[in-house]
Amino acid sequence: MKTNPRTITLYDTPLSQQNGYAPNMWRVRLILNYKKLNYRTQWVEIPDIPRTMRQIGAPSTKKDKDGRPIYVLPVIVDPSRNPPVILSNPSQIAEYLEASYPARPIFPDGSKALQTLFVHYITEVWARPLVTVMVSANAARLSERSQQHLFGGPPQQLSAAEYERGWAQVLNEFNFLSAVLEKNSGEDGDGVIVSGHELTYSDFAICSFLIWIERVSPNDGWLRVRDWHNHPSGPEQILFGI
């Protein structure tokens, strides 16, 4: 079947099976889904990211200490523009999609600065202990080739005590965020949506990490998170009620 020439391409990294898992990629994927945009996924193994991104002319995300470009997914290509738009930073992608496809907005008027600050908190503070406890489970589900590229083989495991201490820190962060969101209960919202009633960019940032836990650690991490807040559904159901 031919691809619509106006279809957006999302470059994503698969697990050992062809499905997405990484929070930054899911943040963009959720926005594309929410805005009901036509897109396709191009799967790229981690060792192939630099070569593939250079081939399509994607901008680097940052530079290493020697000034060489570092390429990190997600990347989107929107061929409906002339020339095609190629972006590689999830926040820049979100702002571009909002400006180019304003239906079903994710940045209500006057909220962009505050949401940018909130998403920075989610990714750099709230999720930090989560990354520590999830890295081994995440790596174990990557292909052997990707594991070798990232770690030189299987990654080092946390001790049982370190692992449980890590999850205790995750629980503290989740409880703090839950208490903050509860301020939107009652007339101000349902205590789940960051802005009270309307889904925004901030909600996609939170949900992307929940999806990561469910996909990578369904029988441990996700069971912990689900039981903390007594919700039997998946992360997308928790957020979207679908």
Give a concise summary:
It holds the Pfam family GST_N_2. The chain has 242 residues and is α+β, with helices and mostly antiparallel strands.
Order of strands in the sheet with the most strands? Answer: 2-1-5-6
Q: Sum up the overall morphology in one term.
A: globular
DSSP summary, beta strand count: 6
Radius of gyration: 18 Å
Count of helix runs: 10
Name the structural class: alpha+beta
Tell me the distance between the termini: 30 Å
Secondary structure: helix percent: 40-55%
The CATH first-level class of the largest domain comes to Mainly Alpha
The tally of domains stands at 2
CATH architecture of the largest domain: Up-down Bundle
Query: What does the main sheet amount to?
Result: 4 strands, mixed
pLDDT averaged residue by residue? 87
Estimate the strand proportion: 5-15%
Low-confidence stretches: none
Series of secondary-structure elements, N-terminal to C-terminal: EHEHEEEEHHHHHHHH
Walkthrough of the structure:
The chain is an alpha+beta fold and 242 residues long. The protein folds into 2 domains: 8-100, Glutaredoxin (3-Layer(aba) Sandwich); 111-228, Glutathione S-transferase Yfyf (Class Pi), Chain A, domain 2 (Up-down Bundle), CATH 1.20.1050. It is built from 10 helices and 6 strands. The strands form 2 sheets. A 4-stranded mixed beta sheet has the order 2-1-5-6, with helices on one face. Strands 3-4 form a two-stranded antiparallel sheet. α1 (23-34) links the parallel β1 and β2. The radius of gyration is 18 Å and the shape is globular. The mean pLDDT is 87.
